[in-house]
Amino acid sequence: MGNAYVGSPVPRREDARLLAGRGRFVGGLRLPDMVHAYVVRSPVAHARVTGYDLSAARAADGVVDVIGVRDASDLRLPCVSPGPGQRELSYPLLDDVVRYVGQPLAVVVAGTPAAARDAADLVTVDYDELPPAIGVEHAVDPDAPRLYPDWGTNVATDFEVGDPRGDCAAAAHDAAHVVDMTFRFGRASPYPLEPRAIVASYAEETLTIRASTQAPHHVRDHAADLFGLRYDRVRVISRETGGGFGAKEHLYPDEALVCLAAIRTGRPVRWSEEPADRLVATLPARAAVHRGILAMDADGRFVALYADVLADLGAHPANCGIAPAAVSATMLPGPYRFDRVGARVRGAVTTSTPTGSYRGFGQPEAAWTRERLIDEAARRAGIDPVELRLRNMIGPDELPYTTRTWQDYDSGDYPRVLRTLRDSVVAPHRDDGRRRGIGFACHVETTGMGPSMGMKAIGIQAGGFETAVVQMEPDASVVVSAGVVGIGQGIETALAQIAADHVGVALDDVRVVLGDTTTTPYSSIGSIASRALAVSGGALTRAAAQLRTRILEIAGHQLEVDPADLEIVDSTVRVKGTPQVARTLREIATAAWRGWDLPDGSTPGLLERVSYEPVAYTYACGAHAAAVAVDPATGAVEVEGYWLVNDSGVLVNPAIVAGQLRGAVAQGIGMALFEEIGYTPDGQPNASYDLPTTREVPDINVTTLETPSPRTPGGMKGVGEGGTVSSTAAVGNAVAAALPEIADRITDTPMTPYALWRLPRHASSPGQ
Amino acid sequence: MGNAYVGSPVPRREDARLLAGRGRFVGGLRLPDMVHAYVVRSPVAHARVTGYDLSAARAADGVVDVIGVRDASDLRLPCVSPGPGQRELSYPLLDDVVRYVGQPLAVVVAGTPAAARDAADLVTVDYDELPPAIGVEHAVDPDAPRLYPDWGTNVATDFEVGDPRGDCAAAAHDAAHVVDMTFRFGRASPYPLEPRAIVASYAEETLTIRASTQAPHHVRDHAADLFGLRYDRVRVISRETGGGFGAKEHLYPDEALVCLAAIRTGRPVRWSEEPADRLVATLPARAAVHRGILAMDADGRFVALYADVLADLGAHPANCGIAPAAVSATMLPGPYRFDRVGARVRGAVTTSTPTGSYRGFGQPEAAWTRERLIDEAARRAGIDPVELRLRNMIGPDELPYTTRTWQDYDSGDYPRVLRTLRDSVVAPHRDDGRRRGIGFACHVETTGMGPSMGMKAIGIQAGGFETAVVQMEPDASVVVSAGVVGIGQGIETALAQIAADHVGVALDDVRVVLGDTTTTPYSSIGSIASRALAVSGGALTRAAAQLRTRILEIAGHQLEVDPADLEIVDSTVRVKGTPQVARTLREIATAAWRGWDLPDGSTPGLLERVSYEPVAYTYACGAHAAAVAVDPATGAVEVEGYWLVNDSGVLVNPAIVAGQLRGAVAQGIGMALFEEIGYTPDGQPNASYDLPTTREVPDINVTTLETPSPRTPGGMKGVGEGGTVSSTAAVGNAVAAALPEIADRITDTPMTPYALWRLPRHASSPGQ
Known about the structure:
The first copy, chain A, is α+β, with helices and mostly antiparallel strands. Chain A folds into three domains: 14-21 and 464-612, Aldehyde oxidase/xanthine dehydrogenase, molybdopterin binding domain (Aldehyde Oxidoreductase, domain 4), CATH 3.30.365.10; 31-130 and 193-243 and 248-281, Aldehyde Oxidoreductase, domain 3 (Alpha-Beta Complex), CATH 3.90.1170; 288-456 and 615-757, Aldehyde Oxidoreductase, domain 4 (2-Layer Sandwich). In chain A, the strands form eight sheets. A seven-stranded mixed beta sheet of chain A has the order 3-7-1-14-11-12-13, sandwiched between helices. The longest helix of chain A is centred in the last third of the chain and has 28 residues, at 532-559. The interface between A and B is large, with 39 and 40 residues.
């Protein structure tokens, strides 16, 4: 490697355009002849549609097209990671049974957004209303209204992970302490800054989709399958995505309807999510109930951990369906040893918006369940919570380590992370009548999605590779392309750093091209699962190093010296110690592209294309601590201090990493204290949604350790999600520490003032 | 190979859009905010510009920008294949010395084409006129006006090829027959159906050039160098090129000025060639004078061939400059044995439009010189011209054969080609008072440009490779991309045929992507030199075969059988003899792109990228015969019959080949009989140009032989230019045969009625 961009907090190149208002967002796009779509959505939660009248809307001024259920019959999108025995493997774009408020009913396309919206009011739908099933615990009740009567149940999938329940129970039988608690996770929205938006056009037999998406190729493949188009006849462009957090990893039914409108009308069709629709139209997540049981012996040794994971799938299994709950189960053990770990995972349908993926993907829930159980066990046993954790933690000498849930941890020093955290915490002191507590939480995190033993054991096929292409043009400029996309995470900058170092050129000589299925390598998965840098950057690390080797080989041939004696300095390849014997990179690159004066057998050109397929996940880890003050009069929680230690392997850009960790903690705090899409008993969602602001998020003290991944070329691990995993649990443990008399009732998120205020104040269960 | 598309005359897929009026030509493009350019050109041939006034034009209604010489100072384009010692290696976009009528003086950019044109009339230029130098024989006169006074001559480059003149003269010394004739080739225009056109835009630091071009990467590289942009910041798109014939192989100064206007204004700028400007603005070709000497012994054995090649470079050496004349010299010997062959090559500047490349690239001139000399020798010796040719022809057992001019012929059966032709000719008979004659001509043709020994010996570095990328998408559709472009020659269809056969899929499953520097592999050369199919198709032959191998390997792994026992039938890989054991291509492709269930060590995905660099040219050959009737009263020549036999190796699409041969013969007839850009003594070109129509072109009887190239994967040779090479000479020999008494004066093209009519009618030189 020539330079040392990797590890340096170079400014994000994306910011030059983003901060200057030159972001290339889909919502700002205007194409000639463009028309605008408005999605008509169901106002009721559960009903049979008995009549549709689209004729008035079709006749309205400026209306170009109206798509109803009959126009989209048989158009269905697939569930990509169904659970074992899952009852539905796809879902329709439009359906004549309504199962949630906000379900698309029709799409109106008109010359202006206002005309489309006005005409939407002319769409009339007659409903035969059905009783809703709200709340997943209610939905699994045998008497609950059924969403799919022919199933005979609302449970779509039901399977076990790790040790069977019986084995866990047997191990717990003689345990000194058994903590058995039920946790409820509020339905949270990923809520990216940029709403979902799409412009679709169809010309020359090609469907072009400009979308705010995390996974252009995934969108391409699904759109092609949906409309029976050849894959190469669908082009997806994602030039800027203003946050995704899992919410933009697939093609939504409303987006697919916009594509259909483009095909039908032959005109570019633009749509972006209405603010009012956002909470019902973009998949929420987390919604789950865990009954968790932790068994511990008298010495404070963890004996068994079991969870009954019940996930609220919403109206149907959507793109990723049960997968987050499966990850909750397989990631349940965290950084600790247990004799037995198991979980039952069920996904049930409810008359609510289908649920999906959100930063952390089931891991924040797993951490909450495990870390709350540990704190409660510590409280009951009278052991310091940090001490109890350290006593049970997998040591660095035990790695690699395979959990009872088939996770094969690769590297890290979990105790060191926690000790480093403990040493950095400074408890705030103020005498204002509020109750104060500090909570800790630790996690191991799946990143850099490769083939997952855990998912495979369950029967969910997952994983995939990334390809990086690095090319030195004849003028020695370097172009990198990759299948992952920029979603605000700075991948464009990070990939440029890797390429510049490994090729040996200046950072400014590297351009990174992302987000266009016609010009970038295939990525079946996209920028999700904290994998973009680890997997795509891993591929690029190899590709860039290969390119450097080729450059030195050509220069060695032309200069008649051993390539090992050459170095690249200032865009020139020169002989070490004899710098006057040199060729400029441009001379070498031009010769390479002309095919002139190359070593025998050398392929002309300077292009390296490398696919890197991880052998498995690479596991990051972290420990978080929150200090809270709880107002006993109102139940209001203030996070007064926040500390975290994170180890995501080699850091390419520490400034970006710190920013990602802080943003993720803010989301974790939001989930802990405010964020929830609630439903009334008749299935109406709340219309407002409280996101944390700078008032609710304190300074976050970030410490990073760097244990290289032995699995990733370059040693990187993922970091995009890490900050969310322990943060909600740390706040929960801090609240429990502040309110020890009701600690065992600190089980649900969000811990809103009202939720805390209404908890019974007396101690409910004696410590065992 | 699975199918048999190669060798089959499948319909051209391009025609579906071209015949339906859906061709995607640049001239039809309209972009938002687009403005229009008009190029102000010099009305005088030679002058110093003493004053410029652009102010009135700049102030005119609707004018956005006016670019004068001071706005483009130091902007120069390179000569890509300069001759040895060539005096100029580049040329300016705008110059304050005018050296030809039509030289760009300024560019006016306005909101409409009419506004730009009107404002152009307001540009005033003061000239200090200088004497023109018209006609290359005049220009090399020591007294001729000098275009570049500091050169001390108008000769830009002067070098020898093959055997030295003295050796040739010595060999000829004792020859029984020495034919010494001087041939003049009219200045012809490639005159593609679609005029040159460009739309340039500059946004997000990227210059996008949509152009009608044969070589997008070449245009990209030169535009980037010109404006100091990184190569990856220039994108050239060429979606449809309505004929090129060599005239669209590079970036012209006027086109570069349109790019400059786009950079200056930030708006898309459109320009297309004015009909009136076409003959002065697009490089013409052929313009040359050959003094040729053929020496033959008493047995009719060719002893020596020498030519003094004097090329009219026009006002400056342009993109390819002297290279066509160098090819005339190195290809002089054709399919015959000579003890000695040599040539002197000079390029001189004249006050006329610079000359360039045109289908045949010097070879039609070489064929005319050689074949006219042979016919004249036959006439003088009283030997049948076909018999004389066969006597001296290189036999198939002599191949590979290296000429005295360093051409290393690879394969073919030249005598068989000529005998086949002779057997197919049927002399027309009509008694209408016209004189009738049949002429034959034979050639060997350089195709599939690889490194050329001949050019290298002269010091002109040439040759290059092509890369083909073939990808099977997860849905089993196949996408091919290549750096060559479609210019009406059907390459899109031919590449699809190769890919379909070698992968083993249906033709309709293959899409071919060409003509966009951001999505296609690099091609430093482009679609010129009859190389697109031989070189790019050679690369694709290998890439597609590799892809098939990979598919069978994966299928073998999954089906647990030896890949050798598998076949691909109907998009399914199945076990030979046990067709029920099978995987669909889609299943295999999806697994490959997911990285699931692949053989150990297998790269995920299904993409093959192969660069093929020819070891040398591959040589096609042909023989042509024309039957003419000459009206002695008017000098009018009618081509009454035409026959050709061509061997271009393996034919991918015989229908396309036949079409290309016929079109090229039409151009050869045009050059023989009508086409010439003439200049008045004061340097004014003629304003009209006679192209042959269906009235002037008879039915052309095409016979093809197929001697595979041993050099090209797939055995193909080029065919795009072949029809031009011998056709002009065949018509010339036919006219000479019709007018034997003045046969030795049939030396110049075009043989217009006036030119023939004014020839002295008496025999001028007795046969030796």
